[in-house]
Predict the structure.
Amino acid sequence: MQYRFTHTTVWVLGLCLSLWLSVPALAQKKDDDEKDKKALKPHTELLKGAQSQSGLMTVHKVDDKWYLEVPDALLGRELMAITRYTQTAAGGGFYGGEEVSRQVVRWEKRDQKLLLRAISYVIQSADSTKPIFEAVRNSSSEPILGIFDLKSTKGTASIIEVGDFFKGDQQAFSMPPLRKQFFKLANFQADRSFVERISAYPINLEIRSTKTFAVTPPSLSGGASVGVMLRDGASTGFVTLSFNTSFIVLPESPMRKRYFDARVGFFANQYSEFGEESHSAEREVFAVRWRLEPKNEEDARRYAQGELVEPKKPIVYYIDPATPDKWKPYLKQGVDDWNVAFEQAGWKNAIRGEYWPENDSTMSLEDARFSVIRYFASDIQNAYGPNVHDPRSGEILESHIGWYHNVMRLLRNWYLVQASAVDSRARKLKFDDALMGELIRFVAAHEVGHTLGLRHNMGASSATPVEKLRDPEFLRQNGHTSSIMDYARFNYVAQPEDGVTDLFPRIGDYDKWAIEWGYRYFPDAQSAEDEKQALNRITREKVQNPRLAFGTEVSLADPRFQTEDLGDNAMLASGYGIKNLQRILPQLPEWSKAEGENYADLAELYDQIVGQFRRYMGHVTKYVGGVYENPKTHDMEGNAYEVVPKNLQKDAVKFLSEQLFTTPTWLLEENILNKIRHSQAATTVMSMQEATITSLFSEDRLVRLLEAHTQSTANYGVNELISDLNNTVLAEAFGRGTPDAYRRNLHKIYVEKLISLLQAGSAGVRHIGPGGAYDFYARVTDLSKTDLPSIVAGQLADLQRAFQRARANDDLTKYHYQDLAKRIEQALNPVKVSGKK
């Protein structure tokens, strides 16, 4: 009988052969597994006498060894590791409670070991079932942070020893390398480092460790040295720091993303996603926000009908018990103030501040389950509001707001300089507790806004007409800015005769709208794309209202989007602000006096006045070469970019000429300058004038002016800017008066700046793209190939003739004009002047 071999026959024979050959291998593997299991100690023996805590991962301490019991159910789950300082060295400018690092990690089992891998979200695959998933995985290998031998097992859990690992200097859970270099921290000292404690909780693990470093000894070489040595390091040769790392399990089901929209100011996360059907990698950008959901189906039904409902999990911020008692209620109120915004989004009691339960030993300030306003004993004049979020979805998990003690001095200075002309409570060095408390409340609310996902809205104040800033009734109803997220500190426009008492920012119309955009619940939406479409229909209507518009904090060209400014016209607003500065300045010696004290406080307040005046000049300067940036979608009318009208740019130049280039003698108050510094009046004025002229002729501004004039000769251009400045900055050379020393200095600054433009090279100009603040593009323009050198050379030639003809009534003026004419000649004809051929 002949056999005919078919494909099926060959496959069956091959399978039989394979099984036959694999029997010894399978047997060998079984023997190896049995051998490994026998090598492991029984957990009852390994953990005899252990102090244990159950939680996300059960913790065991046996003598000086620390063990973790990692359940199989946790393998492959992603955890966020957040490391914070708990104790720091004095003098470094960093404090207990501040974040050091954050890292997504994952446990992985391999043979008889556990691997701890670091996970990054740079590129992702849209579908793990498609072939492209493998390509993405091959392009994003995940670093191994540690490999741990199995010591024992307990049911379906693996037991490993972790003490040496977490007491060590693991970069993911310690001070970053560059920061160590800056503070001259060198070799890690294992014999002076240890794990203080490991605590287990239901959804997180807390590991507190102390690490010691030797310092790099100072050198006698005299070479340049980068960084500083901490005081402890300088005196002992060692620096000891304490850290707390929170491992918190990320939600098994990530929150639905809310796609970023440049028309509303939210922080965002992003990664590139590769889809099987896409023609290119798509960048996914999504907002950072808390997860607010109804408690149950009944609440979801009530929410859909327009009733206010409480979220399943409200947002809670605890007040650090180290905070002085008298300020705690104001910090709490700064949190609670946001409820009015959440109500517009359909939620009641969505957010609250609470005092830390100091006697509850189950709670820790470093525990990543709790959001805290941390109080730092620091001379830094600041506060900040970060958040920790799930990189997969943007869900905020927790936040630790940093509050530095000396922020109160900053608030004192701001309010005195900007509001004391109107508010008599601000006319002294030490404010009453009630006033300082309200200032603290305002800053707390601003920082809480950041931790809710809101970015600075630097355009909010531009929605208020300047004259409305003097209207008490308007301000009572609306405040002086539509967003507390703007840097519109206090109402410096209101004049003493106006009767205005509403001088503080508060939760405004924009803030309510932004919270609605970020936290509105859409029960009928089936996907993030559905939510995007629903939100777009709302957004395109809302942003037509200037009070609900967003102005990015990163714009270099739009004069509406500025820090510390007020109103819709910086020239008008700054004019009112200067009038108030002129009222305040002569009073400073009286307001700052203290028996037996020197004039340090007077000097500080005088510098604050000068600084405020500088800000006004900066606000106005931005109009020159300005471009309005309006985020648009295809279903909205109007252009995304518009050149600032020519009349406003000319008004800006006129304002600068009248307020700055005409010597601001009111700043040169002899009763103050004679007490705080010697012979610096001219320097003070020169530095402000030079800074403004340099800014007016900055290369990126010149490029915008050149391009605008190329698009339309009706737009303001470089030639007209120089001509306008010539007529005011150099007015005396054209027969309008005799220049004094201040004006002669200004002439030289201005002419030297024009001469430098003859050699202008390539200018890099950065723009915000149509995608908003997370979409930048830059280009380089070679200014030597534009009209700029021709314009400047022609203008300088005209000025040279003007200086040669200018009338001088005294020797100093004559020498001055001769000097300027010679400088221009040297710039225009360097070969002729040097005598070389």
